[in-house]
Design a protein that fits this description.
single chain; 252 residues; alpha/beta; TIM Barrel; eight-stranded parallel beta barrel; 11 helices; 15% strand; globular
């Protein structure tokens, strides 16, 4: 049985003070103990989030990016060791905004994910097609290639510990959402592809999230799908009540 994950990607929002206030407001509202809850604050706010979350077990936190080198002349990057030292349990790898604006490729995403996994941090590996690719009817082939390249080098014996996030680029921050059936179709396809890359048994253990304009109003239908194991939430994770409502989806 795959334990669901509800994750909030705060992107470039929230100062340290705002992040701490958000945790203090949202934590008492989260009642669902049957999910893993993760927040991804900006790097500079991670210590404040760590302090606010101390002494509880429901919510973990992670980084929005991670570098593959242990250390070195990589200005602006963070190593696995640095993230571990800060208490991070997860790291996003290859979010579409990193791919679009900062040059991440399938190869660099795989290197980041492999380093995270080797260092004891769970990589959340993001894949997704553009609107143009979807309209051309090549979304699945694009996703298969992206997935294979982004998990390259991950040992089969450790693959069950990774998390995949399917985020159709056309649905991120646009208000457009794939229907639950559409999301299920693609995520079911990704699970089959993971079976080819690793094994069917491993693929059944890998948690696959949906991301793209997830809100309290659509989370329950998304989570009712066979292969959807959670959500990577953007805008709705910035407001304490809406994020708690998403976390509490099964209590409605």
């Amino acid at each position: 049985m795959r334990k669901p994950i509800i994750a909030g990607n705060w992107k470039m929002y929230k100062t340290a003070k705002e992040a701490k206030a958000f945790i203090n407001e949202s934590l008492p509202l989260m009642k669902n103990k049957d999910v893993d809850v993760v927040v991804f604050p900006p790097a500079i706010a991670i210590p404040a989030v760590a302090e606010a979350l101390a002494g509880q077990e429901l919510v973990k936190y992670g980084a929005q990016n991670v570098h593959w080198a242990a250390e070195g002349a990589y200005t602006g990057e963070l190593s696995v060791g640095m993230l571990k030292d800060a208490g991070c349990a997860y790291a996003l790898c290859g979010h579409s905004e990193r791919r679009q604006y900062f040059g991440d490729t399938d190869d660099t995403v795989a290197r980041r994910a492999c380093a995270a996994l080797a260092g004891g941090i769970i990589p959340v590996i993001c894949v997704g097609e553009s609107l143009e690719q979807r309209e051309q009817g090549i979304a699945l082939s694009v996703l298969a290639e992206q997935l294979a390249g982004s998990v390259a080098g991950i040992p089969a014996g450790q693959a069950e510990n990774i998390v995949i996030a399917y985020e159709p680029v056309w649905a991120i921050g646009t208000g457009k959402t794939a229907t639950a059936a559409d999301a299920q179709e693609v995520i079911g396809f990704l699970r089959k592809e993971l079976g080819k890359l690793f094994s069917d048994a491993v693929a059944e253990k890998i948690r696959i999230l949906y991301g793209g304009s997830v809100k309290p109003g659509n989370i329950q239908e998304l989570m009712s799908q066979l292969d959807i194991d959670g959500a990577l939430v953007g805008g709705a994770s910035l407001e304490a009540v809406s994020f708690a409502d998403i976390v509490n989806y099964s209590n409605k």
